[in-house]
Amino acid sequence: MIRIVTAASALALAFGACQALAQDAPPAASQPTPAPAPFMGAALGEGPWDFNSAEGPIHVEVLTRGLVNPWGMAFLPDGSMLVTERPGRLRIVAGDGTLDPEPIEGLPEIYALGIAGLNDVVLDPDFENNHLIYLAYSKPNPSGADEQALAVARASWEGGHELHDVEDIFLAAPWYGPKTQPERCCGQGPAFGSFGGRLLFDGEGHLFVTSGDRNYGEMVASEDNHFGKILRINTDGSAPADNPWVGREGARLEVWSTGHRNPLGLTINPFTGDLWETEFGPRGGDELNRIMRGGDYGWISVTQGFHYNGEPAEAISKVPGKIDPVLAWGPPSLNPGNIAFYKGDAFPGWQGDLLLATFTEGLQRYDTDAQGMPLNQPETLLKELGQRWRDVRVGPDGAVYLLTDMAEGAVIKVTPAEG
To answer: Which pLDDT score, from 0 to 100, does residue 4 have?
Structure first.
């Protein structure tokens, strides 16, 4: 629930929350305890379930089963939804949860390996008239080189089982893969990781795109590439004239902010209009950030996590010119998915609250102040279900919808419990 506080107390509360959950990492000489094995999740029970929450009982039901690593969802005007599956399929889910057995055809060639694949889907702001949708995905280099890039495709979809007029409107630069992988610091992961891929329209017709660092963090500080950046483009893929790097020689004009590792959550607070993001750190250092136009969020030189090879971070926080996270977690990593600020009628006590999907700690619900800043410790919900929560959205009906990032994936619906 939104809390109204004075400016002074807001700063104090926000600072206290950050200190509790985003403490500075230990000095370089210290090493974290070994992280547990990656959380693989558990088989999802039949449901439904009723749980208690601080704002009243909630009812949780499995709306849809039969999905493979679902990644993103978009609500359609008729009450149904589109859901992406990371291996490269786009599915239709009816309003009652029925999964259409036939995937939508006509998608571009998708590179699906590890966490690479088909990511988010969004509708054009004028979808009801132009029937356009946008997809973020990992694209293989058509030259045949073992390289990939984050791409955003635009397509026309009339409601059947085929896309039309499919074209890439944006392609992150440069191409990168095992054949072009140089010597890098810090024990970074493989080139098929850290694509980002979350999409979000603002209220002015601009499309935000999160672009990961491709596990090549040294590239992020350079302005001549799209690695580790949040991008803002027009619906044709061009850069808006008011983007912060427009006019800089050699800079990528699509960039809105930089200094990110693998940004996988993105939302606009409907009460303030602010842009918020979550991203994976290395061992620890997962972040929640309020995104500022032209902001630099520090990666790879500044992190509250630990590099995989034990190499100390160059800096932890409070570096001039770099923006520290609002919250940071770990080690162990919390593994944040998407985020949403609740606005709806179903849960009056959650109005304005921040909902954070995670792989290891269930659904986290934070009270917020009038600026959207999280207050105090979060309430942990749905952890008992043992799922890797990838996406969270507030539906048009005020219910909360989640996707489980599982090989036997599902769409979950959360409503108030009766009685």
So the answer is: 54
Q: pTM for the whole thing?
A: 0.92
User: With 0-12 CB in 10 A as exposed, 13-18 as middle and 19+ as buried, what is 151?
Assistant: buried
Integer Cα distance of 296 and 309 in angstroms: 25
Phi and psi (nearest 5°) for 150? -70, 130
Percent of the chain with pLDDT over 70: 91
What is the Cα–Cα distance from 72 to 160, expressed in whole angstroms? 19
Mean pLDDT of the chain: 92
pLDDT digits (tens, 9 = 90+) for 377-417: 999 999 999 999 999 999 999 999 999 999 999 999 999 99
Please list, in sequence order, all residues whose beta carbon lies within 8 angstroms of the beta carbon of residue 366, skipping any fewer than 6 positions away: 353, 354, 355, 356, 374, 375, 376, 378, 379
With 80 as the cut, is the pLDDT of residue 2 above it? no
Measured in whole angstroms, the distance separating CA 252 from the mean position of its chain's CA atoms is 22
Q: Do 216 and 172 contact (CB within 8 A), yes or no?
A: no
Task: Return the half-sphere exposure (C-beta side, CA atoms, 13 A cut-off) of residue 125.
Answer: 11
Decide if 278 contacts 336 (C-beta within 8 A). Answer: yes
Lookup result for tokens 């694509």? 195
- Average the pLDDT over 147-162 and give the result: 98
The 3-state secondary structure of the chain reads CEECCCHHHHHHHHHHHHHHHCCCCCCCCCCCCCCCCCCCCCCCCCCCEEECCCCCCEEEEEEEEEECCEEEEEECCCCCEEEEECCCEEEEECCCCCECCCCEECCCCCCCCCCCCEEEEEECCCHHHHCEEEEEEEEECCCCCCCEEEEEEEEECCCCCECEEEEEEEECCCCECHHHCCCCCCCCCCCCCCCEEEEEECCCCCEEEEECCCCCHHHCCCCCCCCCEEEEECCCCCCCCCCCCCCCCCCCCCEEEECCCEEEEEEECCCCCCEEEEEECCECCEEEEEECCCCECCCCCECCCECCCCCCCCECCCCCCCCCCCEEECCCCCCEEEEEECCCCCCHHHCCCEEEEECCCCEEEEEEECCCCEEEEEEEECHHHCCCEEEEEECCCCCEEEEECCCCEEEEEEEECCC
